[in-house]
Specification:
The longest helix has 22 residues, at 3-24. By secondary structure, the chain is mainly alpha-helical. The chain has five helices and two strands, in the order αβααβαα. A two-stranded parallel ribbon has the order 1-2. It is globular.
Length: 95
């Protein structure tokens, strides 16, 4: 699958269902690691369902119920092989 294909069939459904589940059950928390998917979601999805989920996601993040770990643009084991590339990935993901 392409980046876009994987986003549409795998990642977007996770983001939508995760935000709905956390909205309904205040005891739940969620951990997310790849900023690239969040950037794609916030920059390119504007359906009513996405806009509602994005607002909920932002609130959940502010409330500490969603935690961003690593903060790189993508997971190191998927995209980079050296320490220099890992540092570049972290800098890019935190911009």
């Amino acid at each position: 699958k392409t980046f876009e294909g994987y986003f549409q069939t795998e990642v977007r459904p996770i983001l939508l269902s995760m935000t709905e589940a956390l909205h309904r059950d205040i005891s739940l928390r969620f951990v997310w690691s790849e900023v690239a998917w969040l950037k794609r979601w916030f920059d390119g999805c504007s359906s009513n369902a996405d806009e509602l989920a994005q607002a909920r996601f932002s609130k959940l993040l502010a409330d500490g119920r969603v935690e961003l770990v690593d903060g790189g643009f993508s997971q190191h084991d998927n995209a980079v092989t050296s320490v220099a590339q890992q540092l570049q990935n972290m800098r890019h993901g935190r911009q």
